[in-house]
Design goal:
CATH class of chain A: Alpha Beta
Shape of chain B: elongated
Number of domains of chain A: 1
CATH superfamily of chain A: P-loop containing nucleotide triphosphate hydrolases
Structural class of chain A: alpha/beta
Helix content of chain A: 25-40%
Largest sheet of chain A: 7 strands, mixed
Distance between the termini of chain B: 30 Å
Oligomer: heterodimer
Helix content of chain B: 40-55%
Number of helices of chain A: 7
Largest interface: A-B, 31 and 22 residues
Strand content of chain A: 25-35%
Number of helices of chain B: 13
Strand content of chain B: 15-25%
Distance between the termini of chain A: 14 Å
Shape of chain A: globular
Low-confidence stretches of chain B: none
């Protein structure tokens, strides 16, 4: 069974008296350890879909199974617990906590979400700091490092809980091309190392090519998937 | 939990100026409340001490109906020998009583052989009276600090008005219960400083002299004043003594004895109550200052960190933990304000004491105010500030914890 299975997913938003359908009967399966991209223009439904997969929102209709759990049935608290245990997030704006150092930002989910013991925390954080090449910056605060470095820290923070799935919404949007490629290569390397599934959204056609499976969204509908490695299919 | 504190403290220092301004506001509030509570509390306690220790005693026992007619000093409402013995035996068995003093109170005529005026007198056992009202000796501004048979202590205003000096002979004339008049000559052995409150301008003679003037065949007293070892046990002892004496009933089936604390006997109690009411309102102002300032800061903090809240909620931080994060910020700010306020408040009171502020209370002039910061006041004010800080943080913290991660992450 796939890590993410979507069946006829629909999501409608009510804006005033108008119902806007952001997703319209989307179905797909994503296998474990995939490196998947959702592409499409602004308003195509990429972020909505990632929010649904990330249990940050619930579908209006259809079924969405993530890591064996029907995420549409989770309440607020169950959703938070599920996210903390199963999903890592990388945000477009990095969203690192400005009052914490690089080390503490990566440690945060282990400390505040998973309650991992100190020695294990140290082991995992140190390993990830090395893996993302930020070991020498570990005592700096987010405002003391560059955008690319921030996103590397965000990647490490997303991976530190050893999630089955990492969701990245436009992770390279605030980075220059060189840095964007570096971050994507880092994500790929992490996928290879930790066997974590990465799903990211982008509208940048140059970056899209880095994905192994590409789902194209248009007006809330999923077009055919292109697969380089064959890990995802519609 | 320590990590929540670490994040909270760092967030507070992230907006250093705002945190300092808010903490300063709380500090100023705490300083003024502490200073007011200390000064007013010390004034109140000094006055209560003056009243109880120089005249009234902490509580008094009378025969039923005596206090209602106390202005007349009715001799027919004295405690008879049997009742007196009952009271004395009861008091002797109470370990918390420091001393007690039976008094015969009566009104008489005071004559210096040239002029005559009226006087209120207390017939007392000097040793017992001085132990029950220990400041009485300090009110003797001229003469020896004792009282023998045949001697009289007279209030200073009377001495001045009548032109009486130490060791002058005077005559006291009084009417007894049966209406017969009797007189006795005394020597003025001391001049008493006047004190504000009931009994503050009374004279003192030996109880046996009073018995002689009033031609009492047996000892009868108007009241028994009591001094407790611990003033804070006043109400407990008043109730206990009342219960112990409640078995003695008169013909109407009512208790013979009435127990009155100083509060029932002195009008200063109303001033003390007013001071308490003012202190209460000052504390309410502090609560309002803390509540509004902390709530304002925390609302700002939540508003400014909406995206951060969205991010930590998205990565799985439970709502309860987000709530704690903000409540702890308010808690820390409260502690900071309370701690600095306490230190500055204590310093301010210390400085005030260096200036030796003096005031007059009734006839008593130049009383030096010795403000004391009570540890309980510091504790209560600090706890109030901290609790109010937490309460003020709750609404913004709750709002933060209930935020939808998607909407929070979209916030610009």
């Amino acid at each position: 069974m796939g890590l993410v299975v979507a069946e006829q997913l629909t999501k409608e938003y009510i804006t005033g008296e108008v119902a806007v359908r952001a997703l319209n009967g989307v179905s797909f399966t994503i296998e474990p350890a995939s490196f998947v991209s959702f592409v499409g223009p602004s308003g195509s439904g990429k972020t909505t879909l990632l929010n649904l997969i990330g249990c940050l929102d619930v579908p209006t209709s259809g079924r969405l199974i993530v890591a064996g759990t029907d995420v549409g049935t989770l309440n607020r608290r169950q959703g938070a617990i599920f996210r903390g245990a199963t999903i890592g997030f990388i945000f477009q704006d990095f969203n690192l906590l400005p009052v914490l150092t690089v080390y503490e930002n990566i440690e945060y989910p282990l400390l505040m979400v998973q309650l991992v013991p100190l020695t294990e925390r140290q082991r995992r954080v140190t390993a990830l700091l090395e893996a993302v090449g930020m070991a020498d910056q570990k005592d700096k605060r987010p405002d003391q490092i560059s955008g690319g470095q921030k996103q590397r820290v965000a990647v490490a923070r997303a991976l530190v809980t050893q999630p089955k799935l990492v969701l990245a919404d436009e992770p390279t949007a605030n980075l220059d091309h060189h840095t964007a490629y570096m971050v994507l290569n880092l994500m790929k390397k992490m996928r290879d190392e930790f066997k974590t599934t990465f799903i990211f959204s982008t509208h940048d056609q140059k970056i899209v090519g880095e994905a192994e499976t590409i789902f194209t969204l248009e007006d809330g509908k999923l077009n055919a998937a292109k697969s380089k490695g064959g890990n995802g299919h519609e | 939990m320590s990590n929540l504190f670490k994040i909270a403290i760092r967030n507070l220092f992230r907006y250093r100026r705002r945190t300092l301004l808010t903490a300063s506001l709380i500090t100023v509030g705490v300083v003024f409340v502490l200073a007011f509570v200390s000064v007013s509390g010390s004034f109140k306690n000094m006055m209560i001490g003056q009243i109880t220790d120089s005249m009234l005693g902490h509580l008094q026992i009378h025969r039923r109906g005596y206090v209602a007619s106390i202005d007349n000093l009715p001799l027919n409402l004295n405690l008879r020998p049997q009742a007196l013995k009952r009271v004395e035996d009861t008091l002797a068995a109470q370990p918390g009583i420091e001393a007690s003093s039976p008094r015969i109170k009566f009104g008489g005529m005071f004559s210096n052989f040239a002029e005559t005026t009226n006087i209120r007198l207390n017939g007392v056992y000097p040793d017992r009276e001085f132990r029950t009202a220990p400041l009485l000796t300090s009110r003797i501004i001229e003469g020896k600090k004792t009282l023998e048979k045949g001697e009289i202590l007279i209030p200073v205003l009377l001495a001045r008005g009548m032109g009486v000096k130490l060791n002058d002979p005077i005559v006291i004339v009084a009417t007894n219960q049966d209406g017969s008049v009797n007189g006795k000559q005394f020597t003025v052995s001391g001049i008493l400083e006047s004190a504000t409150g009931p009994g503050g301008r009374d004279g003192y003679i030996h109880i046996e002299d009073a018995q002689e003037i009033l031609r009492m065949p047996q000892m009868e007293v108007s009241e028994i004043a009591i001094r407790l070892k611990d003033f804070s046990t006043l109400n407990a002892y008043a109730s206990r003594i009342e219960d112990l004496l409640a078995t003695e009933l008169n013909k109407q089936g009512k208790a013979i004895f009435e127990i009155h604390t100083w509060e029932n006997l002195s009008p200063f109690y109303n001033i003390a109550r007013m001071i308490d009411v003012m202190t209460f309102f000052i504390k309410l102002m502090l609560i309002a200052i803390v509540l509004i300032s902390i709530m304002n800061v925390m609302i700002m903090a939540v508003y400014e960190r909406i995206r951060e809240i969205g991010a930590i909620a998205a990565i799985g931080t439970l709502p309860g933990k987000i709530l704690n994060m903000f409540v702890i910020e308010g808690f820390c700010m409260g502690i900071m304000g309370a701690l600095i306020g306490d230190i500055m408040g204590i310093s301010l009171v210390y400085i005030l004491n260096l200036f030796k502020i003096s005031y007059n209370f009734g006839q008593q002039k130049g009383i030096i105010l010795q403000a004391v910061v009570q540890p309980m006041d510091i504790f209560m004010i600090s706890i109030t500030v901290i609790i109010v800080s937490v309460i003020a943080s709750l609404q913004p913290a709750f709002k933060a914890s209930r935020m939808e991660p998607i909407q929070a992450l979209r916030h610009v």
